[in-house]
Amino acid sequence: MLQMEDFITAALSSLLNSLSVPVFLLFECKITIEEAIDMVILEILTNILYITW
Length: 53
Prior knowledge:
Layout: H1 2-11, H2 13-27, H3 33-52
């Protein structure tokens, strides 16, 4: 299991970084779960479009 966590931390650090903002805003009750999901989807789609262009 530790190898999986190391891989995620090393290879997907930008994903973890982009997920941290909506997660912490959600924990602080500054946004709703729907807003957090929208932020994550927007971040993922932005990254996909950036890679394909």
